[in-house]
Write a structure and sequence with these properties.
Layout: E1 13-17, H1 22-33, E2 37-42, H2 45-57, E3 61-66, H3 72-86, E4 91-94, H4 109-137, E5 140-145, H5 158-178, E6 183-190, H6 196-199, H7 204-211, H8 217-228, E7 239-242
Parallel strand pairs: 1-2, 1-4, 2-3, 4-5, 5-6, 6-7
Helix pairs in contact: 1-8, 3-4, 4-5
The protein binds nicotinamide-adenine-dinucleotide.
Nicotinamide-adenine-dinucleotide (NAD) binds next to helix 1 and helix 6.
C-alpha cells in the first residue's frame, strides 16, 4: 500500500504521446503533480516546450521529445533517445489520436485508412518500440486511450470507432501475453471531453444529446494515473469507461 503522503507516481519515467494539448496535456499535468518525470511527445517543438515550461513553473518535472507518430522511424528514434537519457520507461500513455467525422458512404477510403493506421497501427508501433526495455526489467504499465466509441460506435464515426475498438481488443490481448513479464496493459475509454477533437466533430449536437455530460480532463488524468500507479497493482487487461452516463 502507498503511504498517504507519498505521491502516486513518484520518480516514474512516464511517456505521454500527443502531450502538447487536449487530453495528453492534462494527463501530463496530473502525472507531473503526482511526482513523475514526464516525457512529452508530439510534432511541434514549440508547443511541447510551452507545456514543458508550464509544468516546470508549477514545480513538475518534464522533458520533451519531438516525434511524428505517423512515422515508424520517428517512433523508434524517440524511444531510443529517451532510453539513452533516462535509462528506462516505467509508464507509456498512448494518448495521441485523430478523428474526422463523415457518413461512411462519403468517407474517402484514404481517410478511413489514415484513421485506422494512426489510431491503431501507430499505437501498436509505439508499444512495440517501448516493450523490449520493459520486458527486460519485467516492469511496466501501458495505458491506451481508446474511446467509449470503441465499445459502441457512433454514427458518422465508423473508422474512428472501429480503430478504437481495435485498440481495446489489442490492449486486452497484449495484456495476456505480457502477464509473465509483469507488464500491465489497460485501456481508458473516455466519453465526451472538452478538447479540439470533440469540438471539430460534425456530430457534436448528437453526442451532447445522447452521450451525457462532458467529463473533466482532470478526471481522465487521474484515471490514467490510477491505472499506471501501484494503486492498481495487479489490475491488467481491463477496458475502463470514464463517462457521465451509461448510454446502453
Ligand atoms: N475529445 C473527446 O471527446 C475524446 C473522447 C474519447 C476519446 N478521445 C481520445 O483522447 C485522445 C486525445 O484526444 P484529444 O481530445 O485531446 O484531441 P486533440 O486533437 O486535442 O489531441 C490529439 C493529440 O494527438 C496529437 N497528434 C495527432 N497527430 C499526431 C502525429 N502525427 N504525431 C504526433 N502527435 C500527433 C496532436 O498533436 C494532439 O496532441 C485521442 O486518442 C482521442 O481519440 C477523445
Amino acid at each position: 500500500m502507498l503511504n498517504a503522503k507519498e505521491k502516486l507516481v513518484q520518480d516514474k519515467i512516464v511517456v505521454v504521446t500527443g502531450a502538447n494539448r487536449g487530453l495528453g496535456k492534462a494527463i501530463a499535468e496530473v502525472f507531473a503533480w503526482e511526482g513523475a518525470v514526464v516525457l512529452l511527445l508530439g510534432r511541434s517543438r514549440d508547443a511541447l516546450l510551452e507545456v514543458e515550461e508550464e509544468l516546470r513553473t508549477k514545480g513538475g518535472r518534464a522533458d520533451h521529445c519531438v516525434c511524428d507518430l505517423s512515422t515508424d522511424e520517428h517512433i523508434y528514434a524517440a524511444v531510443d533517445e529517451i532510453l539513452k537519457k533516462y535509462g528506462r520507461i516505467d509508464v507509456l500513455v498512448n494518448n495521441a489520436g485523430i478523428e474526422t467525422d463523415l457518413p461512411f458512404i462519403k468517407m474517402p477510403m484514404e481517410l478511413f485508412d489514415e484513421m485506422m493506421r494512426f489510431n491503431f497501427r501507430q499505437l501498436a508501433v509505439m508499444t512495440k518500440a517501448v516493450l523490449p526495455a520493459m520486458m527486460e526489467r519485467k516492469y511496466g504499465s501501458i495505458v491506451n486511450i481508446a474511446s467509449a466509441a470503441g465499445e459502441r460506435g457512433l454514427p458518422e464515426s465508423t473508422a474512428y470507432s472501429a480503430s478504437k475498438a481495435a485498440v481495446i481488443n489489442f490492449s486486452q490481448t497484449l495484456a495476456e501475453e505480457l502477464r509473465p513479464y509483469h507488464i500491465r496493459v489497460n485501456c481508458l475509454n473516455p466519453g465526451l471531453l472538452d478538447t479540439e477533437l470533440f469540438w471539430q466533430s460534425a456530430t457534436k449536437d448528437y453526442l451532447l444529446e445522447k452521450c451525457g455530460d462532458i467529463i473533466s480532463l482532470e478526471t481522465l488524468g487521474y484515471s490514467a494515473v490510477f491505472l499506471a500507479s501501484d494503486l492498481s497493482d495487479g489490475l491488467t487487461c481491463q477496458s475502463v469507461t470514464v463517462r457521465g452516463i451509461s448510454r446502453w
